[in-house]
Amino acid sequence: MLERFKHITTLVFDVDGVLTDGSLLILENGLMARRMNIRDGYALQLAVKKGYHVLVISGGDSEEVRNRLHKLGVTQVWMKTSDKATVLTKFMQEHGLQPQQVLFMGDDMPDLPVLRLAGLPCCPADAAQEVKTVALYISPLKGGDGCVRDVIEKVLKLRNDWNEDESVRAQ
C-alpha cells in the first residue's frame, strides 16, 4: 500500500466530510459556517509549496471555503460540481497525468465515480460504507479532524518532501 503513496503527484479532495466534519452551523442571519482543521491547512500549504498539484472538487458552494483555500495557496478549486469525475479527467488530460499519480479523498456517494478514477482512492474514517469499500486507504482520522493531513503527510514523507519549512504557517 505504501508504494502507491510514492507515485502521487496530485492530491484531490472533496470539501464537506473531508476538509470539514460534514456539519453545517446555521447562523441567525441565515449564513452557514463549516469547521476546518488547522493541521490540514498546514499540510495543504506545504504540498502546494513543494510543487504538488492540489485540487479541491466539491458539489457544494461556499465563497468562504474558496477564500480559505486560496489563502492556503490552493487555486485549483471547483465548486457546485455535479460531475467531479469529468473535472478530474479533464485536469489529468491537460497535465498528462496517469491515474497512479492521483490521490482522491472523498466521503460519500457522489464521490464514488472519482474515487474509481484515482489511482489511490482514500477516505476518512467516518466515510459512507460504500466509499470505504472502494477506498484503498481509509484514514484512521475523521473528516475535518486531520484526515487530509494524514494522507498528505504520508505522500510527502515517502517522497522525502516532508520537512520543516518556516515559511509555511498554520492558518
Furnish the topology, listing elements before pairings.
Elements: H1 2-6, E1 10-13, H2 15-19, E2 25-26, E3 32-33, H3 38-49, E4 53-57, H4 63-71, E5 76-78, H5 84-94, E6 102-105, H6 112-117, E7 120-123, H7 129-134, E8 137-138, H8 147-158
Parallel strand pairs: 1-4, 1-6, 4-5, 6-7, 7-8
Antiparallel strand pairs: 2-3
**What is the rounded distance between the termini?**
31 Å
Total number of strands:
8
The number of distinct structural domains comes to: 1
Total of DSSP H or I helical runs spanning 4+ residues:
8
CATH topology: Rossmann fold
**Strand adjacency order, main sheet:** 5-4-1-6-7-8
The gyration radius over C-alpha positions equals 15 Å
Features:
two-stranded antiparallel ribbon, globular, 15% strand, 171 residues, 8 helices, alpha/beta, 39% helix, six-stranded parallel sheet, Rossmann fold
Could you provide a short overview of the structure?
The chain has 171 residues and is an alpha/beta fold. It has a single domain (2-158), classed as Rossmann fold, CATH 3.40.50.
Description:
With 171 residues, this protein is of the alpha/beta class. The protein has one domain (2-158): HAD superfamily/HAD-like (Rossmann fold). The chain is built from eight helices and eight strands; from the N terminus they run H-E-H-E-E-H-E-H-E-H-E-H-E-H-E-H. It has helices at residues 2-6, 15-19, 38-49, 63-71, 84-94, 112-117, 129-134, 147-158, and strands at 10-13, 25-26, 32-33, 53-57, 76-78, 102-105, 120-123, 137-138. The strands form two sheets. The chain has a six-stranded parallel sheet with strand order 5-4-1-6-7-8, sandwiched between helices. Helix 3 (38-49) packs parallel to helix 8. The longest helix has 12 residues, at 38-49. The model has no long low-confidence stretch (mean pLDDT 93).
